[in-house]
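User: Teach me something about this protein's shape.
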Amino acid sequence: FKEINFNKSHYNFIASLKVEDEEDRHYKEKKLNSLEENGIHLPKEKQDELIEISKQLMEYQSSFTKNALNAKKKFNVKIGETMFSALSDDIRALFNEDLVLNYSVSAVMKILKNCPIKELRDLVYNEDQKIANKGTDFDNTNNINQIVLLKNKRAKILGFKNAGSQILKEK
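Assistant: First, the predicted structure itself:
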């Protein structure tokens, strides 16, 4: 991370390359812009701070992803035989032999969009809303808050008002 993003000799080497091909010129400009946008011009202490922020972001983003995956594993909607028999074949195919629906985006969306049984749509919707949500076993509130704080901190070091301004490239 550090050697590639903050190595000024690497930046100078790319900047000194003579390119004639339009595709190569585009790649060179894109690479130089990326290095500039990530702080190649900053003093070493600011670059070190960006590296630390990046490490922390990776930890919180990893924790966020693990929570979401674990919550999806816990997702299941069990229905009775009566409700199951009232479903169309394509909706029935989403359930296992125990009449349990396990998580998949396509299954959830198919039921929410196409199932005529409101009770089942409500069950699936309510279970879906629990995935890594506040107050659940895999609550991601702290991860989200820390990610937002760190992204805003990174943006300010890079000269932006906040992370939103950085995304929009408004200094």
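Now, about its shape. The chain has a mean pLDDT of 93. The first helix runs from residue 2 to 6. If you'd like, I can walk through any region in more detail.
User: That's plenty for now, thanks!
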